[in-house]
Fold these 2 entries.
Entry 1:
Amino acid sequence: MTAKILILPGDGIGPEIMEQAERVLEALRARHGFDARWSHALIGGAAVDASGEPLPAATLEAARQADAVLLAAVGGPKYDGLPRERRPERGLLGIRKALGLFANLRPAILYPELASASSLKPELVENLDLLIVRELTGGIYFGQPRGIEIRDGERVGVNTEVYSESEIERIARSAFEAARLRGKRLCSVDKENVLEASVLWREVVVRVSKDYPDVQLSHLLVDNAAMQLVRAPKQFDVIVTSNLFGDILSDIAAQLTGSIGMLPSASLNERGQGLYEPIHGSAPDLAGLGVANPLAMILSVAMMLRYSLKRGDLADRVESAVKGALAAGLRTRDIARPGEKVVGTREMGEAVAGLL
Ligand code: NAD
């Protein structure tokens, strides 16, 4: 079946890095029998400029019809003064909500060539390859009751960590499935010694694990997990955790790699449909200069191939091509060490596509 992809270049460096992602898609189509068609739509500031809204109905409808959505980034100083509902980020939040994207997958990969970019010693992080699966639509960020109220004559702030069995089960299944596509080891992170929500979390994860006998399951308390991530991050394959813990742990993991321009992400719903995007923003400081690193965007294409389009073979090819470009010494400005030759966005994209 022909895969249907929706492309949302967005704002800032978005169109420049997306052009390179499309170059990669074209190379896969021309040389590796990739059966797909893609179309473009507006989101974020670009959509505000064209229609006054950050998420036009036509974009949302096209996203619903697609097997996968590739998004670059939204936002920029031009839009900072707009009312909240018309801000570019509302487009992003709106599409995540409308598609029911509850599973956020964030890999942290450090290629040996870039090991010196990490704040940790190179030997601790060289060849790091871990994946954090974060629950994205539940937990304390959404739980009721919430608010600021008066109790015993003073103000108290209240938030509630709440997870249903079905919410835990579906994120656990996503994580086990992801582990199956990788090293087959899953570590579930919770705070089971203090929180009832975590007691249930652990119980349900253990129950779901019976359906995945080929995946080795372990558990860590979140405080220990944070410590282990900076002590010996290479011990992990896949980590699954709640919204709050995942928010924090995934940023620690990203920082281990030292380069925001290299990290892709995926957000999936129950149908396996996904939104794929770099973790970085629209980098308005670099927009139009042709210097942004397109690799996070290109690696988002690889994730899309693996998780939504079930073409792990093509994902491997794209990831190998990225490794090849780095091994050949190509560096955009953000990942170059002093004295290294720097290439632009387009040159990096062409090199990766050329290696496919
Ligand atoms: P940012 O990620 O855009 O930039 C942070 C720093 O990283 C900047 O110095 C930038 O030049 C650099 N950088 C980012 N991507 C890069 C790349 N591919 N290659 C080289 N360098 C890169 O974050 P910010 O500056 O906090 O935000 C800028 C705008 O992006 C804001 O409007 C913000 O709201 C938006 N934003 C969007 C998303 C998203 O679309 N998912 C995420 C974060 C921020």
Note: The pocket of nicotinamide-adenine-dinucleotide is lined by residues 13, 73-76, 89, 92, 260-261, 277, 280-286, 292-293, 296, 334 (CB under 6 Å).
Entry 2:
Amino acid sequence: MSTTSSTHFIREIIAADVAAGRYGGRVVTRFPPEPNGYLHIGHAKAICLDFGMAREFGGRCHLRMDDTNPTKESMEYVEAIQRDIRWLGFDWGEHFYFAADYFDRMYECAVRLIRMGKAYVCELSQEEWKEYRGVPTAPGRESPYRNRPIEESLALFERMRAGEFPDGSMCLRAKIDMASPNLHLRDPVLYRILRVPHYRTGNRWVIYPTYDFAHPLEDAFEGITHSLCTLEFEVHRPLYDWVIETLGFDPPPRQYEFARLNLSHTVMSKRKLLELVREGLVSGWDDPRMPTLCGMRRRGYPPEAIRNFCELIGVTKYESLTDIALLEHCVREVLNRTAPRRMAVMNPLKLVLENISDGERFVATAPNNPEQPGEGERQIPFGRELWIERDDFHEQPPRDFYRLAPGRAVRLRGAGYVTCTAVERDSEGRIVALRGRWSPMSERLKVKSTIHWVPAAEAIPIEVRLYGRLFRIADVSAIPEDQDFREWLNPDSLRIVKALAEPAARDARPGQTVQFERLGYFCADERDFRPETPVFNQTVTLKDSPVAPTT
Ligand code: ATP
Ligand code: MG
């Protein structure tokens, strides 16, 4: 099923460039994650756009590790990022790059800028640098080192690289305009001294380029045409263009900004996600409650649903908060087509069919998926005792309750009918079982509802993990800075239920999502796979689940 694609400003810009023959008609985009965390649903929006535009215009999209800041990067993240993008359905072919592999070329570009009189080594401390930079409403002050001789800057920069100076004692700055209303143009820092080993270049470098210097260079080296990023980089664009123009890259890559995805009831900051993982507030990056792609995969979200969601939310220039319910809608839409139907009972109540004798066996048939007749039917054995959902019975049914009640009949999915004849109680008056009379399908009783069930003799125990929202506030960004965002975590985001399922539930492959009829979609867990007691993660409820699986 394809979601209708509406056009957006980035598609229009690229189409116009292609039509005008700019870049010789080529379209080259890139997705540049920093390998300092796992990818989340916000990244999926960028991935779908970067790879999607390249695919649509017959171009290519590079996967580039934007690894110029050594402090938090690692190979674990590099590998997870590749796995998640492939899972989402995109491929970079041979165009896999590491920004760190360009360190030599970046250094040469910096030297060229110094030679041109466009960059200088500055020895102001960080505090002084900030103070000299000033505020947007008034011009800043020029560094006393700004006009030092080119030869002096060249020599100092080389010694910076050789490790002769301590961290933070000096830096390389572009010489642009200390009076610009855009603070990013007030002689921004291009290189800083940082004695942190890099996961890829080890101890080879003690100076590292800043994002603002590195990113345009990476794009230029790779021949990127359209560099798509989120809105917070809009104010950096004049500096991006300055680097490209000053160094004479032609044709110039161009940066375009779009609004990031903000999703309700969750966080997207890698720092906060890392905190949840480190402090054990979730079970890991792939905890099914996490907004990460690996978490969603483990929860049973199909990649197609995530792609459809990204298409549906579109690409704009305006920040907004998207309700997580929209993502869940996309998940249901795909799973309704693809997930095999099974029956499971979350809160079991025994039903004894009085007119079936102890050893007598019958077989019910039910479609594997009513949306896919080609997938055939499954057979479910049953006999005298069944488990049904406690919620499907009401001793004194309210007006709008059409399910089982004393004296009333309902359809048993695939297995005929039952009429409730008696209620059994324990010594404290609690209902422990129901008795009923079974009627085969051929009797065509007039009933108002169908309930699900599992055969008591063949039922298999399963563990079901029910998930609520990760946060109990829709807009997590609205939590004031002085408050701990963790206090808004939903304490009921995970509940574990021992449930009973029909035998076919055992055939679910790890990672496969099934629909437990009338309850919702559930994914056989990949990590905690146990054949004797399969574990199912709740993927999403049905649009109108008649039985709330949380009761
Ligand atoms: P951090 O949380 O550390 O600020 P980040 O989420 O921006 O980092 P990157 O690895 O730099 O992480 O992101 C890679 C790309 O994904 C960037 O081009 C960025 O613009 C894009 N991206 C990140 N978050 C979102 C989001 N919520 N919506 C859309 N695109 C995003
Ligand atoms: Mg970033």
Note: The mean pLDDT is 96.
